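One-letter codes give the sequence; the integers encode the fold. A sample entry reads:
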Amino acid sequence: MPIHDWTRVRSNRFHDFHQKWTVAICNSLNLGRLPPGYFAMVEQQTGGPEPDVITLELNSTSSPASGGLALDVHPPKARIVARTEAGSYARKANRVTIRHPDGDVVSMVEIVSPGNKDSRHAVRAFARKAVEFLHAGLHLLIVDLFPPSKRDPQGMHKVIWDRLHDEPFVLPPDKPLTVAAYSAGTEIVGYIEPCAVGDPLPDMPVFLTAQRYVPCPLETTYQVAWEQFPVPLRGPLELPPTQ
């Protein structure tokens, strides 16, 4: 199922699709993709940049050393890999942590919405929250299917990464959308896959630890959500891509 051009429809239509896709991702992770002791939940939106799906670990039943794919044996496939050790020093500072009542949060999935990009403040708030999660040792998967704007001229990944490490990053002109997975270990590592309207979505890692992950089936879950999307609303999205 190729990526649709969601700029062609109003935000409320993407919101409907967003909700369906979030549930599909959560269900897919829980149906045998996560190792014993881990589970995913849809997170209720409470305002501001919040995760859509969270992966949790129950300490009493899980074994982090054996869960998921080993990074050194099965490295994620991504066109761009970025690394920074700067975040490790921030994570060494003392902090108070609040535990999730259903378990310890280990990773989060966030699908970028139009509201995350509709103002300079919204873009900065999203990036700030993402960096706070990474500095707290939480892994992230961010899916951005909206093209760059003057507020994020190289996409959301660049806005986030600028807060971690100042280095050049330019999206390919023919691939203006981004999917980015971040591992928060002793160094923060980003796996960035540029894509475009009409492309299939790549499977991306959901990290359980800095060295282990499970693939998140973005393409198949996108298709599940599309099949549930109201047929009368599909018209503008099914038109050929503009040249």
In short: Residues 60-64, 86-98 have pLDDT under 50 and may be disordered.
